[in-house]
Amino acid sequence: MFRVGLTGGIASGKSVALARFAELGAVTIDHDRLARDVVGPGTVGLERVVEAFGDGVLAADGSLDRPALAAVVFAEPARREQLNGIVHPEIRRRAAEQEARAAVADPDVVVVHDIPLLVETGQADAFGLLVVVDAPRDLRLARMVEERG
Ligand SMILES: CC(C)(COP(=O)(O)OP(=O)(O)OC[C@H]1O[C@@H](n2cnc3c(N)ncnc32)[C@H](O)[C@@H]1O)[C@@H](O)C(=O)NCCC(=O)NCCS
Ligand SMILES: Nc1ncnc2c1ncn2[C@@H]1O[C@H](COP(=O)(O)OP(=O)(O)OP(=O)(O)O)[C@@H](O)[C@H]1O
Fold first, then answer.
1. Which of 2, 39, 46, 95 is most buried by its number of CB atoms within 10 A?
2. Which ligand places an atom closest to the C-alpha of 85?
3. Atom 12 in ligand 1: residue holding the nearest Cα
4. Residues 49, 122, 102, 7: is their CA dihedral positive or negative?
């Protein structure tokens, strides 16, 4: 197995690059998607987030109110660390599981992990190759305004 870490700034083109790796035959693991899955409805992750941050981070339908949680954790670094402590181990556990399955199916597989905070979370040494997707700041801003308001 050969492990590739893919990272880059917001709206730099990570998802587009990841899809291209998949087309070329790599197994791809999207950690942003895992970050959403681990706090999905009915998960232990969601339960633990509500325990730590209160009912105010739950939407009316019982799902995670992401903007409400973002308002808390992006205002206070200690709270962000607390959230990371809940979700990051579970994200890594699921990623490792997917990777192990891929390696059993094909020992020569190339596995590409898309991790927005790869460097910040100290994972750079874990990969045989790092790919950094980059685009000018103005272009990334324009993409975000166009697509996400
Ligand atoms: C706080 C949450 C619910 C807000 O969700 P929301 O959909 O509003 O924003 P989104 O996830 O798109 O993130 C917005 C921006 O903040 C950055 N960001 C997200 N989480 C973190 C974090 N823990 N530390 C620093 N920056 C972060 C993202 O890279 C992105 O640029 C969400 O970001 C979250 O669950 N974060 C913790 C998990 C995590 O670390 N995810 C990062 C990718 S592995
Ligand atoms: N090389 C490229 N040329 C033109 N447009 C691109 C290119 N790469 C990405 N884009 C466009 O830029 C936007 C953001 O790309 P993408 O979703 O891949 O970024 P991302 O880094 O995964 O974003 P996020 O940080 O939000 O997960 C998309 O509309 C995509 O089509």
1. 39
2. 1
3. 32
4. positive
